[in-house]
User: Which sequence fits this backbone?
């Protein structure tokens, strides 16, 4: 994938009236990123404890430097590591996805929001 | 691998798409081995998801295309198919048969390779390939073609003689062959989706997989028979049309144009002999007639020519000069900025306005050979007064077509390769040589005019003595280059030398009959071969235009357009310079236009009827273009020019001729651009659009202006137009 994206299931995309290529803002308690949406039938809701839970997915391979710059999903995910192995604590977290009218593309700098 | 085994070994890669996991390791390995630059790309829209980039390009020889297919029985309701897209390495490749310099060659053991030193950058391969594989380096000032070479540079490396000081055991040698000598993509594949080997073994492996797991595979090995067979073969779990593999038919593409091109050398001899026969017969009949009734009409037959005496720098010519400057700037920009920087050409529209312009101009410049043939071969001396202006128009037109070609070629400085290489059957090669030689014949035809003007008697004598010999030489050279057959060449040399001897000038006023015969012969060949160029594109050109006999349609229509343009220009000259309108001669020319247009239209429509293409010709895609061509540019001018009484009315004649020209011009524009269903580079999902840049227009418009201006200059300096009779004399 040439740039960061958030994969969005078709149902959610319909609700947000977002189509592939539209800019969206993905926010969590820790931070936010602006990325393009990739609407796909691959992402299907999970059944957790009898409730339907919508899932979105993001790859994390971008940063502020190099040929392929872009928002890093690390701003959104949980900032914690496994004390034994040093691996990031989890690859799943709670986020909100909002459609954007205009992209405010960050060209450089992390600008990490921590709260 | 022993010598005898390697001679039957056809290097083949099997792509089992059911095993591909879409990791794109092959894509990366290909880039690394072939040293291709990375491309900054964006998220691909249009359901391509993770496919990236969308298509092949000069930096991407290999691509994994992603396909998401709805299947209710599959987990998640979806099937994923990943397919490797790259050169298919046909056993009989269209690209190599198209190449005029054998820069693209099919090796005996399968791979289709490219030699940039031979390439002139004509990009014919890009349009010839039914899969859209060859791509050009549009960003480069010296744009080469790029494509997969099946890693010939890997597979040809010999096994090392020793490893760690020890000679290689048989097993180690086999391991080397299995792991190193394979293409980079095959070596990189972690999922065993790619296998490399001999075509026969690979085919039986593929058949074995299908028969062992009929539930897993569709019973089709894509590439086994497609386009005559390829050396990249595919297996899939779904029908191939669902994952974007076009149905290209089972016929090998070179076969579409081979008949037309192999007919050229014998046709040269046949046309030459036929013209000589007609000339000899008509000449004898004419001399009998002259003996019976003393020549009375010689004054009419051979009118005096004189330079016209009008001011050169008229407002109109100032406009032309401005356009010429615009053209010159565009030409400089073309070479300063490169093809990619100065044009909107792309891997989809590898050909554009300039090729349209060449095709149109060569068609309408057919008046030169038609007039020469009619005047000298068919002894229509009543049309003699139009001969010189027709030849000058032809000479200027063809010269400027050559300049356009130099601008259009990516690597024009490799032009000499056309003289060194011997392609087996390339319409582009035929056209290049035929047009080149015809320009020299046009120059020879025109030479007497300046020689006469400036009284160069000695040069005139040399011209009279040697022009016949030159024709024999040029035609023989042409036949040899096309056939590479000494017997054909010798027969041609004997035939044309005999003709030159038989028709040698005996009197003072000799006909340039040999030049006229050469003009008609060479023109017949290249006018038709311009149609042959498009025989390789049955998959792209609309069915109302593509036909196996398209070469003949091109030839016939060129006569109609060429003679019609002579009428238009002659009437324009008469109007602009206030000269007499030679209605009788123009109407006679109009009759020739009428018959050639009628023959062309009947031939073209008859062919469509025979092949069952006419029924839906109007309702299909581009039906309106077809209607316009046939009705406005065909039936209507035929009706206007049909009767002598109508032809003699200048307005009707002008309108009829203009419509004829317009119809043939539209035909060429349709064939090159409007009726071409271009799909772009592999996997043919993202065709680019095309609108010419200001520089593309500049070169074309500038050269048209230059030819009109130089024609005007020529008739002022040299005796090209007939001397005007004074009013009282008239």
Assistant:
């Amino acid at each position: 994938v040439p740039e960061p994206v958030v994969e969005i299931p078709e149902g959610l995309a319909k609700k947000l009236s977002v189509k592939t290529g539209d800019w969206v803002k993905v926010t969590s308690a820790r931070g936010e990123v602006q990325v393009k949406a990739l609407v796909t039938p691959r992402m299907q809701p999970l059944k957790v404890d009898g409730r339907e839970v919508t899932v979105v997915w993001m790859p994390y391979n971008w940063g502020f430097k190099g040929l392929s710059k872009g928002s890093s999903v690390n701003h959104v995910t949980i900032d914690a590591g496994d004390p034994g192995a040093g691996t990031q604590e989890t690859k799943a977290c709670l986020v909100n996805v909002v459609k954007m009218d205009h992209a405010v593309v960050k060209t450089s700098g992390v600008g990490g929001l921590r709260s | 691998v022993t010598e005898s085994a390697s001679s039957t070994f056809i290097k083949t890669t099997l792509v089992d798409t059911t095993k591909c996991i879409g990791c794109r390791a092959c894509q990366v390995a290909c880039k690394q081995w072939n040293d291709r630059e990375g491309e900054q790309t964006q998220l691909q829209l249009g359901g391509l998801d993770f496919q990236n980039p969308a298509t092949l390009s000069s930096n991407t020889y290999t691509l994994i295309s992603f396909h998401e297919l709805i299947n209710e029985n599959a987990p998640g309701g979806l099937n994923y198919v990943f397919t490797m897209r790259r050169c298919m390495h046909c056993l009989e490749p269209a690209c190599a048969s198209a190449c005029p310099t054998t820069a693209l060659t099919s090796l005996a053991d399968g791979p289709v390779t490219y030699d940039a030193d031979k390439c002139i950058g004509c990009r014919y391969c890009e349009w010839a390939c039914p899969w859209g594989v060859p791509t050009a380096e549009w960003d480069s000032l010296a744009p080469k073609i790029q494509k997969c070479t099946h890693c010939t540079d890997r597979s040809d490396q010999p096994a090392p003689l020793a490893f760690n000081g020890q000679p290689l055991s048989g097993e180690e040698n086999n391991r080397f062959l299995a792991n190193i000598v394979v293409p980079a993509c095959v070596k990189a594949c972690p999922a065993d989706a790619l296998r490399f080997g001999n075509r026969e073994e690979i085919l039986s492996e593929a058949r074995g997989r299908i028969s062992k797991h009929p539930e897993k595979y569709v019973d089709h090995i894509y590439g086994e028979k497609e386009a005559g067979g390829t050396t990249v073969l595919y297996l899939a779990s779904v029908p191939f049309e669902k994952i974007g593999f076009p149905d290209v038919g089972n016929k090998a593409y070179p076969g579409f144009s081979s008949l037309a091109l192999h007919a050229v050398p014998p046709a040269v001899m046949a046309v030459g002999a036929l013209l000589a026969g007609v000339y000899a017969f008509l000449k004898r009949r004419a001399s009998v007639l002259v003996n019976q009734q003393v020549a009375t009409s010689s004054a009419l037959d051979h009118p005096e020519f004189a330079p016209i005496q009008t001011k050169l720098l008229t407002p109109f010519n100032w406009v032309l000069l401005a356009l010429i400057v615009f053209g010159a700037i565009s030409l400089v920009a073309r070479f300063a900025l490169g093809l990619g920087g100065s044009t909107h050409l792309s891997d989809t529209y590898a050909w554009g306005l300039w090729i349209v312009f060449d095709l149109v101009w060569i068609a309408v410049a057919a008046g030169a050979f038609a007039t020469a043939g009619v005047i000298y071969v068919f002894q229509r001396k009543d049309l003699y007064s139009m001969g010189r202006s027709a030849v000058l128009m032809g000479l200027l037109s063809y010269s400027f077509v050559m300049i356009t070609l130099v601008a259009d070629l990516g690597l024009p400085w490799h032009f000499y390769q056309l003289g060194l290489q011997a392609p087996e059957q390339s319409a582009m090669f035929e056209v290049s040589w035929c047009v080149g030689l015809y320009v020299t014949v046009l120059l020879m035809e025109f030479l007497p005019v300046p020689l006469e003007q400036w009284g160069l008697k000695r040069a005139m004598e040399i011209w009279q003595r040697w022009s016949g010999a030159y024709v024999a030489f040029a035609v023989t050279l042409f036949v040899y280059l096309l056939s590479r057959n000494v017997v054909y060449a010798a027969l041609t040399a004997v035939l044309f030398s005999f003709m030159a001897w038989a028709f040698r000038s005996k009197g003072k006023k000799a006909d340039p009959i040999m030049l006229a015969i050469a003009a008609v012969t060479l023109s017949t060949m290249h006018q038709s071969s311009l149609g042959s160029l498009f025989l390789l594109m049955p998959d792209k050109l609309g069915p109302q235009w593509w036909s196996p006999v398209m070469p003949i349609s091109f030839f016939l229509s060129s006569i109609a357009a060429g003679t019609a343009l002579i009428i238009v220009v002659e009437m324009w000259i008469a109007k602009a310079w206030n000269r007499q309108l030679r209605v009788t001669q123009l109407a006679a020319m109009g009759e020739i236009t009428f018959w050639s247009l009628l023959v062309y239209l009947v031939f073209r429509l008859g062919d469509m009827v025979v092949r069952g293409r006419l029924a839906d010709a109007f309702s299909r895609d581009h039906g309106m273009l077809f209607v316009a061509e046939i009705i406005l540019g065909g039936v209507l001018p035929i009706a206007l020019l049909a009767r002598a009484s109508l032809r003699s009315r200048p307005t009707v004649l002008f309108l009829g001729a203009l419509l004829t020209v317009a119809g043939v011009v539209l035909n060429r524009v349709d064939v090159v651009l409007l009726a071409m269903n271009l799909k772009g580079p592999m996997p043919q999902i993202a065709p680019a659009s095309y609108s010419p840049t200001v520089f593309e227009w500049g070169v074309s418009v500038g050269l048209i202006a230059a030819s009109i201006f130089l024609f005007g200059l020529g008739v002022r300096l040299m005796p090209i137009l007939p001397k005007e009779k004074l009013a009282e004399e008239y």
Q: What stands out?
A: The interface with chain A takes residues 38, 40-43, 45, 47, 49-50, 52, 68, 70, 76-78 of chain B (CB under 8 Å). The mean pLDDT of chain B is 91. The two ends of chain B are 88 Å apart (CA to CA). Residues 107 and 113 of chain B are 7 Å apart (CA to CA).
